[in-house]
Amino acid sequence: MPVLHLTQETFDSSVLQAGKPVLVDFWAPWCGPCQMMSPVVDALAEDVTDAVIGKINVDEEPGLAQQFNVLSIPTFMIFKGGQVVDQFSGAMSKEALKERLQKHF
Amino acid sequence: MEARHVIILGSGPAGYTAAIYTARAGLKPLVFAGPQRGGQLMWTTEVENFPGFPEGVMGPELMDRMRKQAERFGAEIVDTQVASVNLSSHPFVVSAGEDAYESQALIIATGASARWLGVLGEEQYKGKGVSACATCDGFFFRGKDVVIVGGGDAALEEATFLTKFATHVTILVRGEALRASKPLQERARGNEKITFLYYTQVEEVLGDGVKVTGVKIKNSQTQEISELSVGGLFVSIGHQPNTGMFEGQLELTKGFIVRKPDTSLTSVPGVFVAGDVADWNYQQAITAAGLGCMAAMDCEEWLASQE
């Protein structure tokens, strides 16, 4: 599935009310490790069908970053049933990211 | 099992330079980019001392250019994580994901990772106010006070960068002096948003369960313990070599892979090393690139001698 580019407007319906777990990548264009992770997240999205993968550009969506207390990027949050069930930061391999996500299937 | 002439582990300046040279030599290298594709320079902003860029260049852009240059000559670069290497028999075996690869030669350029303090609260608040990447996370500390631990070039550069966002930056230095170069010291001292605390160590990271609220610090001369109320703690105390996979297989010293003087040869014939994983002294992008070139040339010569 393609990666969703989430905004304040789409966040509620695409993430909080999603029927599947949602992995959200908080990122910014000026952040090196985010650039490092961006193709990894894209590749993961190609791989998984049991979860939704989304990205939030914190430059464009500072409100969402603030709402979820993002103090580091890239930060990954996994939402399930409208709740944050896991949160972690920093670059990692696709396998590690996938493993972390699959715990919540 | 797929068979290769040479496999390169790592995608910093050392790994990519080795890839450029071995690819141009027709060896069709397979490069495992590793968990931090592009290496430490992906964490930086502007690189001012890499030759050939008189106006400076952004770290991530420099790494992207090196990658493209390697790919142009036929290097195959993959992002699969290497699980293990077996150097006990030849050809060497590299296991990654569900696949295993045989290789005649191996170039190790796995680099180094940021060192952490190892104090109470640090792990809990990573990404919630504790950071090892000022350029990534400084943005979130607008209008807040922060501390940065370290006294080297990187710490001072990051402190100066953080003043763009933070109200105040306190630099905590363990000893009596800074290790940073003169110009960086002068730049930091001239910045009214920066203060220095010497003989100071962090004892504990304090928080409210959601984010960092302060640090408990100790003066090593007076033994006095006090608290600083801050929203962020940045750690810039150097790097440790990524050698976990090679312990017991290659000769190491102080955690670094040992290379024969003036070469890139390791204790195992056919295994070559380049970059910060074997360099406890210089640790520059350009020295890593230089070592990457040496490893590629040593590797090429060794492969030719095996035929």
In summary, what is this structure?
Chain B: Keywords: Disulfide bond, FAD, Flavoprotein, NADP, Oxidoreductase, Redox-active center. By secondary structure, chain A is of the alpha/beta class. Chain A is 38% helix and 26% strand.
Observed structural traits:
heterodimer; A: 105 residues; alpha/beta; Glutaredoxin; five-stranded mixed sheet; 4 helices; 5 strands; 38% helix; 26% strand; globular; B: 307 residues; FAD/NAD(P)-binding domain; seven-stranded mixed sheet; 6 helices; elongated; Thioredoxin_domain (chain A)
CATH class label of the largest domain in chain B: Alpha Beta
What kind of sheet is the major sheet of chain A? 5 strands, mixed
Order of helices and strands of chain A: EHEHEHEEH
CATH topology of the largest domain in chain B: FAD/NAD(P)-binding domain
Give the domain tally of chain B.
2
| Total strands of chain B | 21
SS class of chain B: alpha/beta
Query: What's the CATH superfamily of the largest domain in chain B, by name?
Result: FAD/NAD(P)-binding domain
CATH superfamily of chain A, called what? Glutaredoxin
Report the radius of gyration of chain A as a whole number of Å.
12 Å
Largest sheet of chain B: 7 strands, mixed
Query: Alpha-carbon distance between the termini of chain A?
Result: 16 Å
Please state roughly what percent of the residues of chain A sit in beta strands, choosing from under 5%, 5-15%, 15-25%, 25-35%, 35-45% or over 45%.
25-35%
Return the CATH architecture of the largest domain in chain B.
3-Layer(bba) Sandwich
Radius of gyration of chain B: 21 Å
Fraction of helical residues of chain A: 25-40%
SSE pattern of chain B, N- to C-terminal? EHEEEHEEEEEEHEHEHEEEEEEEEEH
Distance between the termini of chain B: 21 Å
Please give the CATH architecture of chain A: 3-Layer(aba) Sandwich
CATH class of chain A: Alpha Beta
